[in-house]
Amino acid sequence: MEDKLLLATVAGGSARVVVAVTTQLVSEAQKRHDTYPVATAALGRTLTAGLLLATNLKGEDILTLRVFGDGPLGGIIVSADSHSAVRGYVQEPHTHLPSTPGGKLDVGGAVGKGFLYVSRDLGFGDPYTGSVELISGEIAEDIAQYLTVSEQTPSAVSLGVLVESDNSVIAAGGFLLQMMPGAADETIAVLERNVSQMPPISNLVSSEKGPKELLDLLTAGLPVIIHEERPVKYECKCSKERLERVLINLGIEELRDIIDTQGKAELTCHFCAEQYEFNRAELEALIHQIQDKSI
User: Fold this and answer.
1) How many CB atoms lie within 10 A of CB 263?
2) SS3 category, 5
3) pLDDT tens for residues 67-99?
4) Which residue, 56, 127, 114, 54, is CA-closest to 88?
């Protein structure tokens, strides 16, 4: 099934809904970062959340989610843009814990206690950043808490990743439901009932339910207008040219030390695990660039 995202409104604009299937992009993230199951679930949920929240962006705006807990996963960093491209990584990808008593991946235990930070870079100086204390570490509940507390938008969020015993991703997806001011009590009641009766999102996606079927379950009994359908993808903006700037910032002395001790430089992008190599000649060329600018 193709990864896809739907944006819709319900009952004349009483609620805004975003649903997404993200199996392929979460699978790519798992392969790139070699994540173990609980790390895959945590990263996959956060990647999906980034896509859902980024649907409010415009132009070249960027949204960044940072989950910093005291659990063994360390931090989770995800960046998404207005074009439904997302990238991310977890600091300790080989983290895994025993399943919960209910047989589920213990994402909350792996994340631990800490804070969720949501930053929006709108291109006007420093990004706007809001934060909220993690209430469970399960990601979906924490995102909903952030939207309700920091942005005063009552929201329901569901995020799911189903992982096979060989670490492969079977299914991933999620939805974001946000109530708008003035929504009728009857509409709220119907949506609350639908949300409470929804099976786990990963189970629905694994049974071949696409974004439209997820939307139908979520909004059953209410009129819906679908405003947009778009593909989503795992995409990193790294390049050798960008990493050149990282090396230039090290300065001449550090670059010469790398040449003398290693003969080359190997850099790995945190977000996509792509590796870039700079040989001796390329490093010497960077030194010349620095010298030319200092003249």
Assistant:
1) 10
2) strand
3) 999 999 999 999 999 999 999 999 999 998 998
4) 54
